């Protein structure tokens, strides 16, 4: 056994297959003679707390999230915070949400066999550091970070029953309602409708943004910065649903200053950044050990 502990987190209140998928993996591992713990989560943020504690509790723990991209974001944040304090966690995700973008892009081979053989991959993880005069805050994202219109779309998507056709309609409605936002870059005020930084080629929960040959372990992320023009954005959505979008920039660091309070979305999890905060989106090269 390559891991000091294996824990499968699931959300018993999830409408998806969170519990069933967790139990299925637990049984499949048992069949191979490997013990694992099933742990239900019971409130928002609980997955992150458990991932942090488990990551610190033994030498080489594996923490698997049976969830969508948002639940896995919590586990990645807990694990990465523990890693920064010297722990050696490995994470994994069993796709149990609506989009499962991360899993679809990163999944390779058989998860049970990878666990049995102790195989793991090291992929890049996005970071968002926000600094105000009295406070510094750091969050991690396994797939993407979005400013502007995307948090609105995510709120609408979370409310709706999803299928491919109405996802695009919701995106459009949400976009047409949304307001452009302004930030300061290199001392200059800039307006945007949306900025998405992504480490994945496809993000169905955002706009179906896509491009060729995005690598999850090349130390770079792609920036999709869209201007505040509704006809332009309309074209972008139609295009992104069919052929995908080209990124506007590929980088390892993107810095700006907020003017007003600014919502940000990390893998679908939304929080607010204060006005006049310095925001640095970065990437930690091959920092996330995972079995996906
Ligand atoms: Mg990359």
Largest sheet composition: 10 strands, mixed
CATH top level label of the largest domain: Mainly Beta
Pairing-aware structural class of the strands and helices? alpha+beta
Q: Any idea how many domains?
A: 2
Output the helix-strand order.
EHEHEHEHHEEEHHEEEEEEHEEEEE
Q: How confident is the prediction overall: mean pLDDT?
A: 87
Fraction of helical residues: 25-40%
Beta-strand content:
35-45%
List the ligand species: magnesium ion
- Given as residue ranges, the uncertain stretches (5+ residues, pLDDT < 50) are none
CATH topology value of the largest domain: Tumour Suppressor Smad4
CATH architecture of the largest domain: Sandwich
Indicate the overall shape: globular
Radius of gyration, taken over Cα atoms and rounded to an integer in Å: 19 Å
Distance between the termini: 18 Å
DSSP helical segment count: 8
Number of strands: 18
Notes on the structure:
It is a single chain. The protein has 292 residues and is of the alpha+beta class. Helices cover 32% and strands 36% of the residues. The chain has eight helices and 18 strands. It has helices at 18-31, 46-57, 69-84, 101-106, 111-117, 149-159, 164-177, 230-242, and strands spanning 5-10, 37-40, 61-67, 90-95, 121-132, 135-141, 144-148, 181-185, 188-192, 194-198, 202-203, 209-210, 221-226, 249-251, 253-258, 262-266, 269-273, 278-291. The strands form three sheets. Strands 1, 2, 3, 4, 5, 6, 8, 9, 15 and 18 form a ten-stranded mixed sheet that branches. A six-stranded antiparallel sheet has the order 14-13-10-7-16-17. A two-stranded antiparallel ribbon has the order 11-12. The radius of gyration is 19 Å and the shape is globular. The mean pLDDT is 87. The structure holds magnesium ion. Magnesium ion binds at residues 124, 199, 214-216, 218, 220-221.
